[in-house]
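At this stage, I put together one protein's amino acid sequence and its backbone structure tokens, which the following lines show:
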Amino acid sequence: LFSLPVIVIVIAVVLAHSEFPSGSSAGSLLSYMGGAGAAGVLMLAPAAAVALTTYLLAPSLGRLFEKLTLYTMFGSACLVFLFFAVTTWESDPNGSAFNATAASMSALTLSGIVIVANGSLAFNHWLTNYLDALWCRPYDHIALFLLGTAASIHRERRRWHDDSQVTKWRAWLEIVAAQVERDASLSRRFGTAEDGTHTELRDEARRIAAIVRSHKRTLAEAYSAHDVDAVVTSLVRGTQAFCAGDRTALLANAPDQAAPRVNRFAAAILRLIPAAVLIAAGIFLPLIPAIAQSELASSLRWYLIVMGAIMFVTTRQDLATKIGEAVAKVLFK
């Protein structure tokens, strides 16, 4: 979805360098695409920034930023709609083929669609939360996920030898584990302010999710339908425990500790931050007058840039240290 405005703008730029007579169909098409692309970027850029932040934050704050992403896009669409609605756009009949009126109408149409769509999603989100609070118990969503996954695996258990099917099962279990890790922490009952109790519940949720994830290896090593049935039985027992709200039973076979999972993208970002700091220091520190006058300013710049690149490429501290020492000997000899 985020790539669509970029594609539209690229096509519009390519068409803009072509010669079309004023008022032509190609010029109108160019105008519609340009207006839609501009509106799409203005609406999606803030939402993309919030979504990226959501992707990197702790699961305990996930619900808050899911709502914030939705509301950010809704607010951006409203601002874009108002901007193009109150601004007068007039085309020059003797000028370029770009039709400002058509571009404005395209932007209004796209932003209006986004407003309606996001408004519907926001209402659905509110209605779901209202019905959940009115009728559902805390672990009902987890129980449904577990039961549905157990039923699907049981139905296809004879395909334990099918690698693609086992891969699907393991993907389903990861989705269930993520749901357990999010809902079993009971974040809705704590809000955004954390305390000791919430931390304990979140740790317990990770431990319960670790049990679900442990079945992924069992399925990967399955050598008969009986091995698959053992996983299904465990999932059904977990469903019963969640329906009964029995956290003691859920934690009976859980590991003592379960570290928070960091996905590959988040890990890359965590490695990129210190590397970016070093590279930025290498670029800007030599610009300070006191350092710029030194003969070692250029060497310092390259040393910091090289060290930043090394820190991003490798996680081995000993290797980074050896390379850094070698570079320092050459640059500061």
Q: What stands out?
A: The chain has a mean pLDDT of 76.
